[in-house]
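Minutes, project check-in
Item: structure for the 678-residue chain
Input as provided by the requester:
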Amino acid sequence: MITMKLKYLLISVVLIFLFYTAFGHEVKLTPENVSVNEYEYFNLTLSANTSEKLGGFEDIICFPNALNITKDNIILSNIANSADLKDVSVLNGKVWISLVWFNNQPSGNFTIATLRFKALNDGIYQITQKPKLSDIEGQVLDTTCNSVRVTVKPLNLTIVEIKPINPKLNNNFDVVISIENAKEPVYNITGIIYYPKDLNVVDLNFYYLENNISNVNLNFDNNSIQFSINLNTSKKDFDLMKLTFFTNKEGTYLINATIKVNGHKTTVKPANFPIGKKIPSERFVGFSTFEKNVSYGDKEFIYITAKNIDTNISEIKGKIEYNSTILKISDISTSLNTIEKNWTVKNNSIDFYIKTNGTVSNNFNILSFWVEPIKNENTTTEIKISQIYLFNENGSINVPIRDKIIIHIIPKENNTYMKENNTSLKVFFAIEIIDDFKVNFYSLCNDNNTHYFWTFGDNSNSTSANPSHKYEKEGLYIIKLKVNNSFGETSYDECLLEIKKLRPINITFSNKTIHSNKSNVTIYCNITVKNPFSTKIYGNIQFIDYNDYKPEKTYIPFELLPNETKVFSIPINISKSTQIKGYVEYYMPIKRLIKYVWSFKENIELIKPKEVKFNNYYYNLTLNQLKIIIKINKIRKNYTITKKIEIEENEENFINLIVSLIGFLIGLTSIYLKIHKF
């Protein structure tokens, strides 16, 4: 009998286990183990597996500070996007995803989202989650979940990332070049930035480093900017420069660079972005970019990736071909969680095979490797995918292929500014107008060994490379620059400059003389800016030397349409008498770099009132007569105060006398304090 009971009990346990295995509810993040380098990105797929139709999905995904993700890096699947209510947010190390379906409630195994994280610091980290599923009746379902272990390996190379900010057609837009993971204090940065011919450079500045820069050399040539910067910063991560571009042509644009920090190589992440009509999300497998520039002596990272794959992939195999006499391939790797992987490099090709756990989908990197030029030649070659196959549980799937990437080899000598590059002498200059009449001119030349001759249109001239000149009166002036180099070449640049008293800014303060005993007092700086030009301008307000005062914002950007006026009211904390200083900049959206600067300063006086000191005076009076006269004489000024008191002989009058004397002495003390002005 006992044996039969045990059998039934065991059978029941097994059936319950099988039921929950087959019909349970699970939320998974895959892959469960990730290994990446510092400052690399990695994708996690969030998926649900349920036997019930879902009415609601909620998950809180917790991640450490060493990893980073933004809302823009969370891509919902088609099923998640079909939810009638949806909310996605990132705050304080947590990702919140909340979905509600009123119709077409999903069930089975499906993807919720792809999360793209960035690894910031080396170490081993854990990503956890707290999911909650509910059925169409609103009942909460028992749900299991998992965590992800992330191993971040230290990277010996500095990363340079090029990031466009909201690029638009017929509008100025910024591209920020950032240094990440600097391995030592940075004292020198050199390099070349490449941009397409249909992009016009409107402005370039290094204000991100403020006072850390000691010297800058710039040369513009053939849609590239050669630069050398001396600076002093111990920051590991910082923004190096901001370029402002303008274009009126639709298309996809690539901005790339070769950059060295302290003479050491860096890994550059280029910007590849569309401008103009909205380009729909593309489903493909292949190279992540269409072309790359690689300098001789440097290496570049190449990715083979998959985008918007709407099924789970279990196997990937393919073949890549390249010219081994021009390029060297090294350090092949994959970031996928694999069951099996292998690749071989031979006969100008890479054969690879990857087997996963069957949960890979949406967006993911398949393979990555370094490419390095073998010959110091100015040439172009390509890397081509001759075949690639993706398999799900039903077999091979059909995906469009981006089958090649163009590699432009840049010879080492093109990184210098010397004549032997066979580039003819070219010159261009930028203009900075300060307080309407002082003008700084900046020559941008592709040859360092150059002689300069400027004429400023008012019978003045200069032979400096970057002269300053102050105009005495308003007017139109023709600015000319002539340069000669040691090879006898000559180049010219000129423009028409209007000098006019504009100062389209007005600065007022809510209080310039403050009487207060408080340690911090808030006043308001009211700044009115107006656009006096016939074109849209871009500008900013900056406060400087704010050691003794604290503005709520030290940098305020703005845009102004023609004849538009804007008013900014900035709270400023004052702790002692100080001088508030700053300037307003206007940028002109034209091909020549022209900037207007108007400075301002105002003395703010904080007066703390003197404390009033009270002295107590005591007098013993012996009353032996009916009349008493009291006189006070001030030494500096002869003030005489006389009080006549008549006393009656009865006791009540005596008390009144005492009260009268006390009142008199109080009044006397008050007059005394006023005279001495305590």
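Outcome recorded: The first strand starts at residue 26 and ends at 30.
No further action items on this chain.
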